[in-house]
Amino acid sequence: MSDVVDARSDASATLFEAARHVIPGGVNSPVRAFRSVGGTPRFIAEASGAWLTDEDGNRYVDYVLSWGPMILGHANPAIVAAISHQAAKGTSYGAPTALETTLAEMVIAMVPSVEMVRFVSSGTEATMSAVRLARAFTGRTKVLKFAGCYHGHADAFLVQAGSGVATLGLPDSPGVTPGTVADTLTCAYNDLAAATAIAEAHTDSLAAIIVEPVVGNMGLVQPLPGYLEGLRALATRTGAVLIFDEVMTGFRVAAGGAQAHYGITPDLTCLGKVIGGGLPVAAYGGRRDIMAAVAPSGKMYQAGTLSGNPIAMAAGIATLQQLQAPEFYATLTASAERVVEIVRTAAAKHGVAVTASNVGSMWGFFLCEGPVADYESAKRADTQKYATLFHTLLMHGVYIAPSQFEAAFISSLHGECELSVTAAAFDAAFAAIS
Ligand code: PLP
């Protein structure tokens, strides 16, 4: 996108150029490179509360929040103190600590379906391990996932989106073999009839149904009424393990995640992001009888040199403790609703079609008419206009995801000042694409 006006980014541009010589694409995770919006990725110098400061000294109200974890804002004092305190006592032992049991007990107390939990270091590890566990527990091989849901970059999940029919997946990335994904079945999100047809055609071989209960990875897409209940019943009927991938929704849409919000009990849950307060922590957990199959109590092998790392556990504990504050989620949800209203109002003022919504403190919008219920409808959004809107927001001090197909978040430190900067920025941004 050569026509992108991308001022105030000289230092970032220089740093990006240097990074590109030594890191593929100049980044350690692809979306950070701004490919779908064009222009120069901002290199961040520091962050505090709701604000990011880049290497050129620009400040932005941050709605990416490290892709979800920073629910308490950046550099939260209690988390910083917990990290420093633990670091002074050693950064990693490779042996058990009391911190791991404390965080496990907190997770179990908060997430309704989790009876036992294993900590890992990334969401990808959590989902990959949960699927291996479902296979080990059921003695079956196949997994059903939904188009537009992202479960990390393990081979089995990198499968071309299918439509509402039973399709054996094709690899979505070179390097993933057809054999690896042959056991991954896909169909459209929110299409219970399609999921039912596939599951019932594979009753003997379906090990797991894995779903983002609220999708954040095609933009924010909510489950239709009855959909999650239907998946629950379908998994029970077919003997498949129901895995809620709550890496994004966990501790985010409610204290107990989407399963608490909608009142559904999955068999296994994957957690990440908020659970580590910005450090690399993720987890999978669930029914005690299933978790008992994990080594060394069972035979399903899964391990990690830095799993349960003491600094990361300390950060996780300091985070979850603060989420217990009275009215924490009610206040956060109210802020997210106000941002959604800001977006709707600015879009209406400038006559731009928008579909905006939130679930708790996850929010998002598509530049198209609704309803958006699956990947096909999400793809109707105008990505060219999104690029212009994105850069106009940047120029006005607001940082949202550099892609139309990502969710946004809000922290407990987004207050009146941040919301008024946001309102002015969206007004200018919708004016720019009207
Ligand atoms: N699952 C979901 C729902 C996610 O949103 C993500 C990452 O965004 C992952 C899994 C993978 O997590 P990680 O990036 O920590 O490997």
Characteristics of this structure?
eight-stranded mixed β-sheet, alpha/beta, 15 strands, 14 helices, 15% strand, binds pyridoxal-5'-phosphate, 434 residues
Characterize the structure shown.
With 434 residues, the chain is of the alpha/beta class. It is 37% helix and 15% strand. The chain has 14 helices and 15 strands. β9, α8 (257-262) and β10 form a beta-alpha-beta unit. α2 runs antiparallel to α10 (310-323) and α11 packs parallel to α14. It is globular. The chain starts with 9 loop residues before the first helix and ends with a helix. It binds pyridoxal-5'-phosphate. The site of pyridoxal-5'-phosphate has 16 residues, from α4.
Helices and strands, in N-to-C order?
A: HEEEHHEHEEHEHEHEHEEHHHEEHHEEH
* Overall pLDDT level: 95
Largest sheet, spatial ordering of strands: 4-11-10-9-8-5-7-6
Helical coverage, percent range:
25-40%
Short structural summary:
With 434 residues, the chain is of the alpha/beta class. 37% of the residues lie in helices and 15% in strands.
Could you outline the blueprint of secondary structure elements for this entry?
Layout: H1 10-22, E1 44-48, E2 51-54, E3 59-62, H2 77-87, H3 98-110, E4 116-120, H4 123-138, E5 142-147, E6 167-168, H5 178-181, E7 184-188, H6 192-201, E8 206-211, H7 227-238, E9 241-246, H8 257-262, E10 268-271, E11 282-286, H9 288-291, H10 310-323, H11 328-349, E12 355-359, E13 362-366, H12 375-378, H13 383-395, E14 398-399, E15 408-409, H14 416-433
Parallel strand pairs: 3-14, 5-7, 5-8, 8-9, 9-10
Antiparallel strand pairs: 1-2, 2-3, 4-11, 6-7, 10-11, 12-13, 13-15
Helix pairs in contact: 2-10, 3-10, 6-7, 11-14, 13-14
